[in-house]
Design goal:
By secondary structure, this protein is α/β, with parallel strands linked by helices. It has helices at 5-12, 55-60, 87-102, 115-126, 142-150, 170-178, 193-196, 199-207, 225-230, 271-286, 291-300, 327-340, 359-369, 386-390, 402-412, 430-438; strands at residues 3-4, 15-19, 25-26, 28-29, 40-41, 65-68, 80-83, 105-110, 132-134, 158-162, 182-185, 218-222, 236-240, 245-251, 254-259, 262-266, 309-313, 316-320, 345-350, 376-381, 396-399, 418-422. The protein has 16 helices and 22 strands. A hairpin with a 2-residue loop joins β17 (309-313) and β18 (316-320).
């Protein structure tokens, strides 16, 4: 979107430090690698970077002007210089301005797991009826919110915004600047407990999504005491329950179910995907999407990279669900895999991150969960994942590196086996599949 300078100043509260030529309309760029001639450069400042170091570069590349948080340092080769106390806040204010100017319906999604899956599933349904935009991949922080709003087309009707968080107050900030019409929490789990201390604080943080939720909006979540007890929202609330699901039929790459006497079908397996679909169904109904289009959109949904990504290499079938992991999502995926797929089966499980002082206990818990299963081989990678094997009754092997695990798979796992990979993203489990194909 292009702005007039007076729009920018009014929106951000910027102070003009220097001006030579303020005529024209402008696009905003926060990255000199993508900057176009005539843009205004907005340098963002973070813990490990400072875009102010690239102001001179931006001007060399053709920027007309720039924002700065440094009031007493002005490069007069610019046509104008704008001072703001915080460039990220200025970026958020501009994103909010775009949100209100285009005025799509905004659906915000957060949760300990399932955010991106629910976002993609909802996008598939919404796109049957409306011109729809969404958060790219998992770009779910403040910068990602701004990028989502800035990349909307002027005729966008609905935008789906994913909201992540690592600390209290972050979702409140995102909700405030995107003003959702519908707010969705997928679940409350132990992801980020290392930073927030306990599940109550996680629930409080997730429920911040209601801070900016419009008074005439809708809040949707599973029927959870953690959510009900920490939600402060007076508007319409919808709580879904798996108890209202019947005729469940789950097999490989397939889930059929009946919800409120209507049949639905997904081309992915798992109870947890059905639970995500219930949230999507309720949100779609609020936007008056027809039953037929909801059914069509859910059927057409396909997982994105590293979420139940199936590949066949050297006679082995790999299911890569290693985009992220916490105890709740790990158990849900294991339950689905071990109930749907037939032997020979192999589990490759890695460290789950950000679980705080009880991280070993959480990994032991997964091992104990697996004690009810047999006829499956368990391979673990990492200093924490080893406790999964040591507390299970399954036959298995511990590894320190992805390479060691990949080599073992090639040398010891027989063709025709199905192998599930599940770990936190930092484990880079895609390397195992790449190495098996290369070695």
């Amino acid at each position: 979107m292009k702005f007039k300078l007076d729009e920018i100043i009014k929106c951000t509260g910027a102070q003009i430090l220097y001006q030579k030529d303020i005529s024209g309309v402008f696009e905003i760029s926060t990255d000199t690698r993508k900057l176009k001639t005539g843009n205004i450069y907005l340098p963002l400042r973070g813990e490990n970077y400072d875009g102010h170091n690239f102001i001179d570069k931006a001007l060399e590349l053709g920027a007309r002007g720039y924002f700065t948080q440094d009031k007493f340092k002005v490069n007069k080769s610019a046509d104008f210089v704008l001072y703001v106390k915080n460039s990220l806040v200025a970026y958020l204010k501009l994103a909010n301005y775009i949100r209100n100017k285009i005025n799509p319906k905004v659906i915000a999604i957060t949760g300990s797991s399932g955010k991106t899956t629910t976002k993609e599933m909802l996008y598939s349904v919404l796109s049957t009826t409306y011109k729809t935009h969404k958060t790219y991949l998992n770009h779910n922080n403040e910068i990602g919110l701004c990028q989502t709003m800035f990349s909307m087309d002027n005729d966008c009707q609905v935008v789906v915004v994913e909201m992540g968080m690592r600390n209290l107050g972050e979702i409140e900030l995102l909700s405030t600047y995107c003003s959702p019409d519908i707010g969705i929490i997928t679940n409350i789990g132990s992801a980020h407990v290392e930073r927030l201390g306990n599940l109550k604080n996680i629930a409080i943080a997730k429920c911040e999504i209601a801070v900016g939720l419009k008074k005439d909006g809708v809040f949707i979540s599973p029927d959870s005491a953690k959510i009900r007890n920490n939600l402060n929202y007076l508007g319409k609330k919808i709580f879904t329950s798996y108890e209202n699901v019947s005729n469940v039929d789950i097999s490989i790459s397939h889930s059929k179910f009946k919800y409120n006497n209507i049949d639905f079908e997904l081309n992915v397996e798992g109870d947890y995907n059905i639970e995500n679909a219930l949230l999507v169904i309720e949100a779609a109904k609020e936007l008056n999407i027809s039953r037929e289009n909801i059914q069509k959109g859910l059927f057409n949904y396909k997982p994105i990279e590293k979420r139940w990504e199936v590949s066949e290499i050297k006679g082995l079938t790999f299911i890569n669900d290693s985009y992220n992991a916490n105890p709740e999502s790990m158990k849900a995926v294991l339950k689905t895999f071990l109930s749907v797929y037939k032997p020979p089966l192999v589990l490759v499980l890695g460290n789950m991150g950000e679980l705080g002082k009880d991280e070993i206990s959480y990994h032991k818990e997964i091992g104990e969960f697996l004690c009810t299963y047999d006829n499956v081989k368990l391979l673990t990678v990492g200093n924490l994942a080893k406790y999964i094997l040591r507390n299970s009754t399954l036959e298995g092997v511990e590894f320190e590196t992805n390479f060691e695990c990949a080599k073992y798979i090639l040398d010891n796992i027989k063709k025709g086996s199905t192998i599930l990979l599940k770990a936190s993203r930092a484990m880079k489990f895609e390397e195992i599949i790449e190495m098996v194909g290369r070695l």
